[in-house]
């Protein structure tokens, strides 16, 4: 039985070393690990050979290849050593068919799989392997290729199961640490307990103290601690005991237990096997990892040596640390019970109402997230749905990254016992932030950079980098109605690619037409009074007007809208041409009083009785013959009409079917933008 792919997933993951193939017929030796294991050797060689060819070809470029896009897959490359590469191939879900009222074109998957994020995910996976197995080059020379293969199989066969692409976002790019703050007295108690542990148990090299999944104190270098933090958040922090600060009483001596270590200290026959890892600065594993939990506190211990840890160590540690850690954990929980976000209240000031920052559009950021595809409903959900529990933060959210301390502060995520999750409505905003970060990275040597994006009249997103530190801020100036929380966003009228000729180019989200040929809108005019307009960006030959759906079907049957002259010759269309003439059935039935030129905005007003034209916001009289004035416009239009546009000879038109894209207000009262039929109900 075949199942359709509805989300990105790993289709192939392999580690290969081209230098291991010394002669023809030994190509299979290059592959050190391959997922999935059931694939035939020929298929493995074909896939690895293609990737090797790409990397060999691009190594002569200024930068090596990191990603390769196809219509159905994404390939990501990471070099672990001089001649050893890891390749991850992600299969994309097929494009979904959309209704006739939506932007009906066929594209592959284009959302929420950022190269920046996925390369960071692959790099983190390699760093996690080296954390527990050592540097690949050192492991290879010390243990041999066969041991390296077994280590790769053991690690990645488990690690790949934890990679869920739908949950990845901008935080993966940082691989940072979420810190928690404590009262000065509490921090002194934490530091005192850590010093006591290191003094009493000399085999313990380092201690890391976590509260509620966040780092409170560490004796490790932060660059090393962030990889350990990633491992614990991904695999260890899966449960969080509940604690009622008002009624909790310790009926036993303490509530401590080993997460990694013996489960039952009273069982003298139980053997304990702890994870082996590399200590800071070590090329090969030389230490063991033990974790101990009491309520919401987790202690992470790096113990020197790879020999089995004696049972007496665990008993003595539990006896000495358990009661103290239980009391300290209860005190920390009580002191932070009134905190809003991870023990911190981050004051964020609102933008001044008079600020006029430099605004750029989302289309310039190379992102597929557009307003009509869900940004505004997501922002509404973000504003109202989550503002209640964080009222002290006002109506602002932010994400902060400090590469010097690997610190990440975010009010767009909630950290729970099972890891972090995004707050409602944050996903689309995080996707936009990824595009903004890509823009900032285009100028890495700049000390200060800032980009401001206006998402909505009341919502702004600011990305700022200063001295290496990055902050992404969302400013919301008013509450919004959340009636459309779970509803699909309202579709937007735009040019329809399915009706366009083969040589027509549609740009700017269905608003710009160029090339050679014609296209219609994706919705007919069904309301009483409708207005739309087009700006002549580049002069040439063009046509704009109204047409019946029959003319479009007829033209498709013979020559699919290949020429704008077909619109002028059809008896089912009424169009204005570049010479100012209004054409119908191959004849010019009227002409504008004044000619149009490059830069003019042509407006069309239609009320199912007559079609009137305006230029730059002012109605223009029409003339038939030498003297007769048609002051009321063109009449005789019947049936279901669509806006139609045609271009040729280097002409470029920007059409506006929605009020926010209008250059001028409708010149006749009560006329408005074109609405979908369901918007009229």
From TrEMBL:
Residues 463-662 form the B30.2/SPRY domain. GO terms for cellular component: Mon1-Ccz1 complex. GO terms for biological process: vesicle-mediated transport. InterPro entries: B30.2/SPRY, B30.2/SPRY_sf, Ccz1, CCZ1/INTU/HSP4_longin_1, CCZ1/INTU_longin_2, ConA-like_dom_sf, SPRY_dom, SPRYD7. Belongs to the CCZ1 family. This is SPRY domain-containing protein 7. It comes from Paragonimus westermani.
């Amino acid at each position: 039985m075949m199942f359709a792919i509805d989300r990105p997933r790993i289709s192939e993951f392999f580690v290969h070393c081209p230098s291991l193939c010394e002669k023809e017929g030994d190509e299979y030796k290059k592959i050190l690990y391959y997922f999935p294991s059931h694939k035939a050797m020929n298929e493995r060689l074909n896939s690895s050979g293609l990737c090797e060819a790409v990397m060999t070809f691009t190594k002569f470029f200024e930068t090596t290849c990191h990603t390769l896009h196809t219509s159905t897959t994404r390939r990501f490359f990471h070099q672990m050593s001089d001649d050893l590469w890891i390749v991850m191939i992600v299969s994309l879900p097929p494009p979904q068919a959309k209704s006739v009222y939506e932007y009906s074109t066929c594209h592959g998957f284009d959302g929420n799989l950022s190269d920046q994020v996925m390369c960071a995910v692959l790099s983190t996976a390699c760093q996690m392997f080296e954390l527990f197995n050592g540097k690949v080059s050192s492991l290879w020379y010390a243990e041999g290729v066969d041991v390296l293969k077994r280590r790769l199989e053991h690690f990645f066969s488990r690690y790949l199961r934890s990679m869920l692409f739908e949950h990845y976002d901008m935080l993966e790019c940082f691989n940072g640490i979420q810190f928690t703050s404590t009262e000065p007295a509490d921090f002194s108690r934490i530091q005192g307990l850590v010093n006591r542990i290191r003094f009493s148990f000399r085999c313990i090299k380092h201690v890391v103290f976590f509260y509620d999944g966040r780092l409170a104190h560490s004796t490790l270098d932060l660059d090393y601690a962030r990889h350990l933090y990633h491992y614990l958040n991904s695999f260890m922090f899966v449960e969080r005991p509940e604690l009622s600060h008002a009624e909790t009483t310790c009926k036993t001596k303490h509530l401590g237990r080993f997460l990694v270590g013996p489960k039952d200290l009273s069982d003298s026959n139980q053997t304990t096997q702890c994870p082996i890892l590399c200590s800071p600065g070590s090329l090969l594993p030389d230490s063991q990892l033990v974790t101990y939990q009491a309520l919401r506190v987790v202690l992470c211990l790096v113990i020197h040596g790879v020999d089995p840890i004696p049972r007496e160590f665990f008993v003595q540690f539990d006896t000495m640390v358990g009661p103290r850690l239980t009391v300290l954990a209860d005190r920390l929980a009580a002191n932070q019970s009134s905190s809003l976000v991870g023990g911190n209240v981050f004051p964020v000031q609102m933008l001044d109402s008079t600020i006029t920052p430099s605004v750029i559009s989302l289309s310039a950021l190379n992102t597929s997230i557009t307003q009509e595809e869900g940004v505004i409903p997501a922002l509404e959900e973000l504003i109202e749905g989550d503002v209640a529990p964080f009222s002290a933060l006002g109506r602002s959210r932010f994400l902060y990254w400090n590469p010097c301390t690997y610190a990440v502060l975010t009010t767009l995520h909630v950290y729970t016992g099972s890891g972090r999750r995004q707050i409602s409505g944050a996903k689309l905003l995080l996707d936009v932030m990824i595009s903004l970060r890509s823009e900032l990275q285009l100028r890495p040597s700049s000390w200060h950079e800032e980009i401001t994006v206006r998402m909505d009249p009341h919502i702004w997103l600011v990305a700022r980098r200063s001295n290496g530190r990055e902050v992404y801020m969302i400013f919301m100036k008013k509450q919004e109605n959340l009636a459309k929380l779970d509803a699909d966003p309202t579709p937007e009228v735009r040019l329809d690619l399915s009706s366009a000729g083969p040589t027509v180019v549609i740009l700017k989200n269905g608003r710009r037409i160029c090339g050679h040929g014609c296209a219609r809108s994706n919705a007919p005019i069904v309301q009483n009074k409708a207005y739309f307009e087009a700006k002549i960006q580049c002069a040439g030959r063009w046509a704009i007007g109204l047409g019946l759906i029959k003319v479009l079907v007829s033209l498709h049957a013979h020559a699919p809208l290949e020429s704008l002259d077909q619109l002028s010759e059809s008896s089912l269309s009424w169009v204005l041409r570049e010479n100012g003439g209004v054409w119908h059935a191959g004849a010019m039935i009227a002409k504008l009083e004044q000619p149009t030129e490059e830069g003019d905005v042509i407006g069309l007003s239609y009320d199912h009785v007559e079609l009137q034209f305006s230029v730059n916001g002012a109605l223009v009289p029409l003339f038939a013959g030498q003297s007769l004035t048609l002051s009321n416009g063109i009449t005789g239009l019947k049936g279901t009409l669509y806006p139609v546009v045609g271009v040729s000879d280097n002409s470029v038109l920007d059409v506006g079917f929605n009020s926010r894209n209008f250059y001028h207000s409708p010149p006749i009262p009560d006329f408005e933008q074109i609405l979908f039929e369901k918007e009229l109900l």
